[in-house]
Amino acid sequence: MTAFLVLLLAYTISQFDRGFLAMVAPDLGPDLGLAASDLALLSAGWFLAFAIGQVPTGLLLDRVGPRRTVAGFLVLAALGAGLLGLAQGFAGAAAAMALIGLGCAPALMGGLYLFGRSYPPERFAMLSSVMIGLGTSGDLLGSTPLALASHAFGWRTILVGLALVTLAAAGLVLGLIEDPPHLADPVKHPAKGPAKTSIWRGFAEVARMRALWPVFPVVFVSYAVVIATRSLWVGSYLGAVHGLDPLQRGNGTLAMSAAMAAGAIGYGPLERLVRDPKRTAFAGCLATGLALSVLGLFGGGSTALAVVLLALTGAAGLSYGILMAHARRFFPAHLLGRGVAFMNIVFMGGAAAVQGLSAAFVLGTGGLAPDAVYGRLFLVYGLALLAATAVYAFAPRKPAFERPNAVDPGGMEPGPTPPPPACAPAAPGRGARA
Fold it and tell me: Which of 185, 188, 261, 340 is buried deepest, with most CB atoms within 10 A?
């Protein structure tokens, strides 16, 4: 439980970091002389750095474990928050946001790595969903509470406080987490420690898993359109299209954030009921795509309808944990760290790409009224997710060794027995419990 709570704190900070810009933008933008498109690029830079950070994260989790990996990266996030509080223009703010994004890279991956090493795959979905759902409280803090705090203390003071809290979290991770036992190399020297597969070879092995190819498009799009809406556009949309003041925008954002937290937690029990992560994720992505499409077509006519659709997008849209649980079934034990990190590269690379493209889209429609601009943006989001979900329908539900009488459509031949467990059956240490 100690390890779970400490890693939950790290992930909560990561969630706050990826969404706070939408709330402080009305003050930060004018102070630094930034336009809306500049703010979109700052947010995209966070996600791009986060995605790039998954490469060393995957290798370090497999080589040295989550304790030093998560703690060391959090120090970088704290430094970035402090630098953003001192920024005087776009260049300084962009560098600081990139540093924050890089520092948050292993915040969730550390927990997922421990779950994957210590529990069977069927419990991975529940644990990851609870972690993601509770960690989404960072989004809640980044809505109305942040709007009130920013008004009372100023955005620079908020960033200094964030830096101090992040440093404290790094200290807790370093002091209270224990790494799981190292895995032996499955080919060479099975008793002499972890495998030394090269970083690029490990990621390439994951990329070559044909069973995952139909999963990649929905992974690339599903989280991206939801987090772009939440972290970048929800505040300006509610203000420009529906005329809401800052506190009202914060309340609308709070509704979406609360729905995201509830939805992420609810995905775990739902998956246990359905007993199939693919079907669970497919239904969630379908509902999200439809909600965004309806928001784009009809959301501009009613504030109440817009808020309801934003909340539905948040509740159904956080299928991240279930999609990760589906993909996790295909990773061998020695590639678990790089496997979840690779998937996170796709998730966060999609978020960075969608936010960057969103900025270009908004700039390219500058002559339109706000309701037309945002209507088209959300409709494109919804249609893109529906198309990716259609591709996901062809993904295999489980690896071939769990279907001994069938040939895996992902290209893996059936086998008579499953692979060895991810870790020894001995009871895990403090750091291996949730």
Answer: 340
- Whether the per-residue pLDDT at 321 is higher than 80: the answer is yes
d(CA 427, CA 359): 50
Alpha-carbon separation of residue 431 from 14, 130, 177, 180, 399 (angstroms):
20, 17, 5, 7, 29
- The mean of the pLDDT values for the chain is 83
| Three-state secondary structure call for residue 417 | coil
Contacts (Cβ under 8 Å, ≥6 apart) of 314: 226, 230, 256, 257, 258, 259, 260, 263
Contact 37, 363 (CB under 8 A): yes
Residue 168 clears pLDDT 60, i.e. is over it: yes
Which domains are seen in the chain, by residue range? 2-178+210-396 (1.20.1250.20)
Under 8 Å between Cβ of 106 and 60: yes
Task: Give CA–CA dist 98/16, Å, rounded.
Answer: 15
Grade residue 198 by pLDDT with cuts at 50, 70 and 90: low
Q: Which two tokens stand for residue 258?
A: 């609360």
- Which tokens in the block code for residue 306? 């817009």
C-beta of residue 21 within 8 angstroms of C-beta of residue 42: yes
- Going from the C-alpha of 8 to that of each of 14, 114, 146, 170, the distances in angstroms are 10, 12, 20, 12
245/238 Cα distance (integer angstroms): 9
Cβ neighbours around 25 below 10 Å, total? 22
